[in-house]
Design goal:
31% of the residues are buried. The chain has six helices and eleven strands.
C-alpha cells in the first residue's frame, strides 16, 4: 500500500479516471509504539460507480481494489488497504513522493507529517494551465462534498496543526477535492501531529 499517489493526486489523473469525482479517500495512521504503526487507506465510491469501474476492469482497465479488501455497503463500496509493522515496513512512500513520514523524536513522542504545500500547484499543472474556466468550474462542482481525510491516532496529541479531537487522542484534517480542483485551497507546507506514547 502506498499513500503517495493519493497525496500527490494530479488533476490529469482525476480527469482521465472521470469517476474520481465520486470518490472519498481517508488515510489513517495509528501509532502503536515508538517504532511501529498501522496504516489504513480507505477509498469509497458509490455502488453505481463501483459497477462501472468493474466493467472497465473486465475490458482491460484498472481494478478498483487490487491490493485490498472490498467492502460493499448499502450505497457505497469501500476499498480498504491496511499495513502494520515498523515505520520502515509501512509502504507510505517518502517525502519526495509526497507520502506521510513517521519519526520517533524522543521522550516517547512520534511525529507524523504529510507534505501538502505543493498539492495546489500539482493539481493546477495536472489540469493544464489553458483549461477552459467553464470546464474547470463544472469539474470542481462534480467534486463538491468529497474529501481526502488524514487521521492520526494512537496516543495523546501533544502538538498539531490539524483538528484535535475533544479527548485529545486523535487529530484529523479534511482536504476538499473541489477547492483543490479550483486552486483556491491554502494549505500549510505540511500537516503534522505529535503523538505521545
Amino acid at each position: 500500500m502506498n499513500f503517495a499517489p493519493i497525496a500527490r493526486l494530479g488533476g490529469a489523473v482525476v480527469v482521465t479516471l472521470g469517476l474520481a469525482a465520486c470518490m472519498d479517500v481517508s488515510m489513517d495512521l495509528d501509532i502503536l509504539s515508538e517504532t511501529e504503526g498501522r496504516a489504513t487507506m480507505t477509498t469509497s465510491v458509490s455502488n453505481d460507480v463501483y459497477t462501472m469501474i468493474e466493467q472497465q476492469a473486465e475490458e482491460g482497465g484498472d481494478e478498483f481494489c487490487p491490493d485490498g479488501e472490498v467492502i460493499a455497503g448499502d450505497t457505497t463500496t469501500d476499498c480498504v488497504v491496511t499495513s502494520e509493522g515498523t515505520f520502515a515496513e509501512l509502504d507510505l512512500g517518502n517525502e519526495e513522493d509526497g507520502g506521510p513520514e513517521i519519526t520517533a523524536i524522543g521522550n516517547g513522542q512520534v511525529r507524523v507529517s504529510l507534505p501538502t504545500g505543493e498539492l495546489n500547484e500539482e493539481i493546477s499543472q495536472g489540469m493544464g494551465e489553458e483549461e477552459d474556466p467553464e470546464m474547470m468550474a463544472m469539474v470542481a462542482a462534480m467534486f463538491e462534498g468529497h474529501y481526502i481525510t488524514f487521521n492520526v491516532s494512537g496516543g495523546e496529541i501533544v502538538d498539531t496543526n490539524m483538528d484535535r479531537a475533544e479527548d485529545g487522542m486523535s487529530a484529523s484534517y479534511q482536504i476538499p477535492f473541489a477547492d483543490l480542483m479550483q486552486g483556491t485551497l491554502e494549505l500549510p507546507d505540511e500537516l503534522y501531529a505529535v503523538v505521545q506514547k
